[in-house]
Amino acid sequence: MKRDFIKGTVVLISLLAAFSCTKEQTTTDSSLITPNTTGEIIEVKSSGATSFNAPAITAPFDSTADLTADEIEFLFAVREDEKLARDVYTVFYQKFQNKIFENIGKSEATHIKAIERLYDYYQIDYPAVGDAGKFSDAKLQHLYDSLIVKGDSLLSAVKIMANLEESNIFHYTEVLKTILNPNIKIVIENLEKGSENHFKAAIRQITALGGVYAPVYISSADYSAIIAKGFENGKRYRYLNNGQTNNQGKNINAQNGKRGAVTNSGSCDKTSNGSAPGTNSGNGKQGKGYRG
């Protein structure tokens, strides 16, 4: 996942070019979840690929106030960051036919869906993910293009994966310090755990190829601690599963219909909670002013 994100707080380069006018609608199959039990919302394979279990994502969500413009923009930035990783890994799999890129690229696609489940839960209108490798933000497009060029060998490509995942370990850990919405926190916690697993998978591959990786974002001590652990599942959450697949409980406005909207440039242009747009006008910055 990703790289040039933080300046001051947390930065995830964002902005997408070609969005279609439609998106996949998602629902939660609550019949697969037992009320008042606990369970995990991510699944980890022996390869380290960490995917969200779609039916379980909204099951532990609780009713909250509607999302603010900053929260809506934050989620968009996270989704586009996941898209960048998915697109880069897809190209690397096409180049090298190494399963690590296929497996983790597929996992990144479920991470995108996890963010969209949050949008669906809060009844936010959002654009569909655009074409692979196409970004309207010049910095994001440059990053994508440069990573594809730099990944000119299997070893260099896996090192790029490790760098992107290491970056997210650091930045998701930082942003979790400011998140107050419990449902957003659940998803970001598991995205961070997924990055740890993907990072370890990349390091194992680098070692198998005879390469060496030096951490860039995290300390040597944190690096050693992460590598020493095996692949890990996320936290266990209590499943509420009261049949609620959207935020019907404490939302500020009881009327039906959309509770907010985000444009294909990542700006919130509608919300029932607070003023739109978000407070940070800087394109490509994670959260665009999000303060929890």
Helical stretch count? 6
Helix proportion of residues, in percent? 40-55%
CA-based shape? globular
Order of helices and strands: EEEHHEHHHHEEE
Query: In the CATH classification, which architecture applies?
Result: Up-down Bundle
Q: How many E-type strands?
A: 7
**CATH superfamily membership, which one?**
Ferritin, core subunit, four-helix bundle
Weakly predicted, low-confidence segments: 1-28, 280-292
Rg, rounded, reads: 18 Å
CATH topology: Ferritin
Distance between the termini: 22 Å
The mean pLDDT is 82
Number of folding domains?
A: 1
Largest sheet: 3 strands, mixed
Percent of residues in beta strands: 5-15%
Structural class from helices and strands?
mainly alpha
What's the arrangement of strands in the largest beta sheet?
4-6-7
Name the CATH class: Mainly Alpha
Can you put this structure into words, describing what you see?
The chain has helices at 69-96, 99-121, 138-150, 154-175, 182-208, 220-228, and strands at residues 38-39, 42-44, 50-52, 124-125, 237-238, 260-262, 268-271. It is mostly helical and 292 residues long. It has one domain (30-271): Up-down Bundle (Ferritin), CATH 1.20.1260.10. It is globular and about 55 Å long.
Characteristic terms for this protein:
292 residues, mainly alpha, Ferritin, two-stranded antiparallel ribbon, 7 strands, disordered C terminus
Give a concise summary:
The protein has 292 residues and is mainly alpha-helical. The protein is built from 6 helices and 7 strands; from the N terminus they run βββααβααααβββ. It has a single domain (30-271), classed as Ferritin.
